[in-house]
Structures are given as structure tokens and as C-alpha cells.
Amino acid sequence: MALQKLNIVSKTFSNVNGRLFSLSTTVAKTFREKYRDFWTPKPRFVPPYEHFTQVGDPVLRTEAALVPQELVDSKEVRLVTDRMIKILHKYDCVGVAAPQVGVSLRIIALEFHEGKKEQFSEAVYKARKMSTFPLTVVINPVLKVTDYSLHKHPEGCMSVRGFTAEVERYDSVLLTGLDRKGAPLELKLNGWNARIAQHEMDHLNGKLYIDTMDRATFACTCWQVINNKGGRVEIPFYK
Length: 239
What we know:
By secondary structure, the protein is of the alpha+beta class.
């Protein structure tokens, strides 16, 4: 998994990509391992990141693991959820999944704050069935579709930075899971908030919106600016 070597409790998760979320006490290393570690450059940044992982990173294509019940209210999981909330606000997003901060665990965070209204025209806000939603973290979420009506609207993703496309999503869903303290949660979501939940749940299953998008609508979010600036435009990956 992608929460590499945190060495926190007596349990270890791993995935086929060889990236580890190590929840284990320190294990004695062989001389060869110590020698290899000495000469191997150490990564400057390790998960949970303060930036969004980008498409191509194996963590985004891995099915995330359940958070063990005994760890839901642990300081280690709180570190992950705190980092998720920080990045959600730092980039002014509406949702984030743990794999997007490099951690392959089934955790999502959702929020559609009042200030978001100012970013859309009244017509768009109404057409996309947007509504405010308080910051909510859901651990081990389960999503059930309650209204199979499909709506197609543009979506973007901070893990596919600089692009957008139209995606069909179900109108209403029921989201259940645990809050940060381990208490049961049940959320009835519709419209845009249901779309956010579906988008984030896809991340936990190793999927991206580009897998189900209308390919003819895939576009760079700043194509006009690129033309106006003669191509002298950069897409930032850090704030």
C-alpha cells in the first residue's frame, strides 16, 4: 500500500505494487538491507502527502483496503484524515479519497461549503442540483444507488490535473460507513453531492472519471489561455 513505513502498531498492509503502509514495530535488517538503504536516496516526501497523487501513480489503480475496526480511532488514521482535510481546504475541493494522498485505505472526505456558490452561475448551480454539504469524513464507506436516473455533467479531478470531461452519474445514493470516532454514519445524498460521493468511491476501487467519461468531451481546462499566451502556461501541482 501507499502509506509507506509508518511503523505504528502490530499490523502490516501491503499491495502488489510493493508500496507499503507498515503498521509494525521495527524489524531488524540484514547487513545487505542496511547497505542497500545507505546508498538508496531517501524520498523527501512520504504519504500521507500534502499534494494530490497524479494519474500514473499505481496507488490510484489499486483497490483500497478496509481500515481495521481497532484502528478507526487511532492516531495514525487521524493523521491520514487530518491530511485529507488539509488538502481538501488547501486546494478548495469538494472531495478527496485517501489514495489521492498516497494512502490505499478506504477513507473519503466530502464538503460543499457555502462559498462554492460564488463559483457557479445560478443557472449552472440549479441545473447540476448543487447544494451545500458540511465537511464529512467517512471511513469504510459503502454506497448504494437509490435513484438510477442518470445525469451527465462536467467533472474534473485533482489527480488528473488540468482536464475535465462530462460523466454520467446516478441521481441519488445512500452512503454508509463510520465517522472519525468509529460511530455509524448514514448519508442520503442526491444531485451534485451524490456525484461527489460516486466520484470518491471510484477512487477507492482504483477507478478514475476518465474510465467512464464521454471521451468526446475530454478537454484541457485552460486551452483558451494556452492559445492566448502562445503556449506559455503552466499547470500547477502544488499550492
